[in-house]
Design brief:
mainly alpha; 2 helices; elongated
Length: 103
């Protein structure tokens, strides 16, 4: 397909005159896209805030008179970490274990 000089000039002129409108359209699209992203993030933030408010409301004590008395956490005996060996002894034991691998 051969393009005459006149048709080629016409296509280049058409591209030259339509390029600014394309750039303007791209810029407007970027602005609207950014605006939509901000709106989406704000709505997600609102949903997250509402969900956290519900969690806080559900975790709040129902009877505020008994809220001052704290219950002991069950599971681990108090003072257990006081019987642990100091850091240096634990480190020395680890080094001895690593120096002599089992046969």
């Amino acid at each position: 397909m051969t393009v005459s000089f006149r048709t080629g000039r016409y296509l280049v002129a058409l591209l030259w005159h339509s390029a600014p409108w394309g750039f303007i359209g791209f810029a407007v699209g970027c602005v609207f896209g950014t605006w939509q992203a901000v709106e989406l993030l704000e709505s997600v933030d609102d949903y997250f805030y509402q969900a956290m408010a519900k969690v806080v409301h559900q975790c709040a004590p129902s009877d505020l008179t008994n809220a001052a008395t704290l219950e002991q956490v069950k599971g681990r005996a108090p003072g257990l970490s006081e019987h642990a060996p100091p850091f240096g002894q634990t480190e020395a034991r680890a080094e001895r274990t690593l120096e002599h691998p089992p046969p």
